[in-house]
Amino acid sequence: MSFELIVSIILGFSLAAAAGFRVFVPLLVLSLSAHFGWFPVNDTWQWVGSVPALVLLGVATLFEVGAYFIPWVDNLLDTISVPLAAIAGTLLMVATMGDIDPTITWALAIIAGGGAAAAVSGTTSATRLGSTATTGGIANPLVAGTETIAATTVSVASIFSPILALVIVLLLIGFGWKIISRLRRA
């Protein structure tokens, strides 16, 4: 296995995990990366760097981020975010994989990419539900801000330092599980 392939797998996994925080933020960062040539995407994903894709993903990102700052709307979004994050995580992983056997690419994308995104999204949904239950939704904008910062940080780190992004993802997942454990005890 080549070093480039390992880096692309880590990149895809990290972007997929970021999709668990916000579905469109890592897609927008990948689009910017492809547009400016910061990281090459799979040949079939060249379209993601186009200006129309940048505009569409930028608008979608703004709506998603803004909607999560509205208490109760954020909980409604959580009902669809886990499956959407899993799909986005799978696609992000596929987009970053090089020219390897499609069977391996899709298996890895579904298991690692979709799994990472779904796990993070499930954790954030549980955190927000706990916040809603304990504060009546008053603290939800703080949770939303933290998730948006995490999605942006992991996405940008994924492009410029995939190993650092992987470390950040693992730390955030551990931190998220600690919060959920505390909320369950309370």
TrEMBL record:
Any one Pfam family match given in the protein's UniProt record, by short name: DUF4126
Source organism: Dokdonia donghaensis DSW-1
Official protein name in the record: Membrane protein
Signal peptide from the UniProt entry: none
Domain spans labelled DUF4126: 9-180
Transmembrane segments: 6-30, 51-70, 76-94, 106-129, 149-177
Keywords assigned: Membrane, Transmembrane, Transmembrane helix
This protein's record includes keyword NADP: no
